[in-house]
Design goal:
With 529 residues, this protein is mostly helical. It contains 21 helices and five strands. It is 64% helix and 4% strand.
Length: 529
Amino acid sequence: MLQAAHHETAPHIDASARTHTMLRTALSGLALFALFAVLLAFVQYGTPHLADNDGYYHIKMAQIMREQGLRPNFIWLPMSILSAQAFYDHHMLYHVYLMLFTGDGSPAAMLAGAKIAAILMPALAFTAIWWLLRGQNVPWAAAWALGLCAISEAFLYRMSIPRAQSASLLVLVLALHVLFKRRYVLLLPIGFAYVWLYNAFPLLLALVAAEALAALLTERRLVWQGVAFVVAGIVLGLLINPYFPVNVVFIANHLLPKIGQPDVSVGNEWYPYDTWVLITNSGAAIAVWILGAFALGWQGKRFDRTTLTSFLLSLFFGFMLLKARRFIEYFPAFALIFAALAAGPLVQELLRDLSIMRTKSAPESAMTDRPIFSWPTWIAAGMLLALAGMIGLTINAGRTAMSNSQPSAKYAEASTWLREHSPAGTMIFQTDWDDFPRLFFYNSANIYTIGLDPTFMQMHDQKLYDTWVNITRGKVEQPGAVIRDQYGAHYIISDLEHNSFIRQANKDPLLREVHRDRYAVVYQVLSEP
C-alpha cells in the first residue's frame, strides 16, 4: 500500500516541481529583461532625439498604417523604385510593432513612443540570447547574456535605433535556438514571418547553411531539414504577401546593388569601418571571439555541432562586418554566443577544480567550520565585478554616442512652413537623400524627389539621379529651370551646409528664398523671373 501511495503521489510531485521550475525560469527571464531594459534606457536617453534619421520614417509609417491599414498608399517617392505602383514595405511587421507606440499621432508622442520601442525590442533580443544559452546548459547564462552590454558600444548604439535590426537579431536567435533543439518544423513560420518583418531574411539562409555544414563536418551526415523548412517559409512569405509580385522585384533591386555593383551609390553604413575605429568601438567583441577559440584549444576538444555552428556564424558575420559596418548589429552577439558555448564548460571546470583543490587541502577538522566565501566564490565575484565594470564603461560610451544625435527639431520649422504654404501633393526638391525621413515625419502632405536610399532613384532613372547629384553639389548654374522642368518641383529645401548649391540658388532668378531658420533654407521655384 505504501508503494502504491508512492506511485500515486510521484506524478503530483513531478508536476509540482516542473511548475516551480517553469515559474522560476519565467521570473528569471522577466528580471533579466527588465535589467536589459534599464541598461538600454540609460543609453537611449543619452539624448531626447532619435539616434538615426531612418527612425523618423519608421515611426511615421507606423502612424500612417494605423490610419490607412497594413498597405497604405505610398505616394511620397514617385521618382524611385518605391513609386506608388511599385512600393513594397520591406519592414511591414516592424511597422506593425511600432504601431503600438505612435500614441495620438503627434510628433511628440511618436518620438516618445519610438524611443520606448527602441528599448524594448533589443531587450527582448538580448533576453532571447540568454534563453538560447540556458537551453544549451551554458553555466552562468545570465552573466554571458549581460556581456552583450559590455562588448561593443557601436553594437549598443545600433541596437538603440528604432529600426528593424534588433527585431532581426531576435528572429535569428530564435531560429538558432530552434536549430539547436532540432525542432525544424518551427523554422517554416519563422522564415515566413522574417520575410514580412525585414528584407534581411537571406541571413536566415546563412544560419541554416552553417548548421548543415557543421552537421556534415562533425557527424558526417547530411542534415537537410533546417534548409528545407527555411526555404519553404521564405518562399511562402514571398508568395503569400500583400505586395506580391512587386516585393520580389524590389528585393532584387534593393539587395543586388549592395553586393555586386561598384558604380551604385549606397549609404555610409554599407562601407567598412577603419580598422582602428572597429578595434576602438568593438575590441571587446573581437576579444570575446578570440577567447572562445582559445578555450576550445585549451580544452583540447573537437568542435561539436552546436559550437561549430556558432563558430561558422561568427565567422560569417565577422566577414560581413569587414565589408559593411552595419553588420556590427550581428557580429558581437554571435561572437558572444560562440564564446559562451566554447568557454562555458572551461569556466565551470575551472571553478570545480578550484573547489576540489580547496576541499583536499583543508584539514578534516575544518570541514565542519568551512568559511562562507571560498576561492571559487571569490573568483566568481571577481569575474562578475569585472563584467559590471565593462558594462558601465560600454553603456557610458554608447550613451555618449547617442548624445551626438542630431536634434529632432531639424527641418521641423521648414517642413511646417512647406505644409502650410504649398498645396498637398506638391513636389519638394531636397539636396540630401537622407533628409527624407525627417521631412516625411513632419510633412507627409508633400512628396519628395529622393529618399531612404540613393539607389532607389538611381535604379529608377540613372540620368535623373546624376543630374540631381550635380545640382546638389553646385555644378549646375542657375538650376531652377532644371528642377522645375525635369523634377516638377515647386519648392526646394536644403540644409545650410550645401554652400555650393546655395551660392548657385542665390544667383538664379527663378529661385526665391521664402524661408530660413537655423537648420534649413526653402526656395520657391518660379515659373518666370
